[in-house]
Design brief:
The protein has 234 residues and is of the alpha/beta class. The chain contains 10 helices and 6 strands; from the N terminus they run βαααααβαβαβαβαβα. The protein has 2 domains: 143 residues, HAD superfamily/HAD-like (Rossmann fold, 3-Layer(aba) Sandwich); 71 residues. Helix content is 47%, strand content 10%. The radius of gyration is 18 Å and the shape is globular.
Length: 234
Amino acid sequence: MFPKKLEGIVFDLDATLVNLGGFVNWREAHKKAFEAYIKCNCPEEMVQRFSKKGLFNMINLVREENIRTLSPVQVEKIQKMAYDSIEECEAESIEKCELMPGCDPVLEWIKEKRILMGIATSNSEEVAKKILEVKGIEHYFETVVGRRPNMKMKPNPDPIMVCLEEMKVPLENSIMIGDSIKDVKAAKAAGIYVIAVPAFFTKNDALTEAGVDHIIQSLDELPLIISGGGPSRE
């Protein structure tokens, strides 16, 4: 249910606020992360098996597997090395990426309504902060939660929960805005209302199956939804 009193919004970053991903060599990032895990003495068979599921799935799965046999300190050290290797590729997008349609005016409208905003992203936290700064929208956000070695990534709810904790906003008074199935699953696991702005290859049917509460086609639609206390039920 849409919050009766909306105090905070958690945004995804890539393909929601900026088109970061279109300027990253993800194949190279995947290769670098794979190599980082091998250098950390992770079993090659295990890394190879999880690698077939894609970059971010590999990262989550390797972490889960390492937790079974390694100490939290060791797991964090390994994750940091993998994250740092990917960050080099993501940094390529800082100057090149652009704001998604409607981004700046919508963020300004939300700020005028005194609704707090934060970001929970699977991208590098440092790259995310730099992008916000370069694009001139960093002042809208209370906090940015990116990949952290001690934390699981989406679709786990941890990034959203940490973001809201750092914003000091109760779960029941918050919503999530994202573009992907992982955003939707993370928000529902956290127990908050989620609005999807599907981008690129994300299918509406898949978002619905994941449990999305509402789908919009552009950020421009957000003010009307928020002003009305949620989507019309007619």
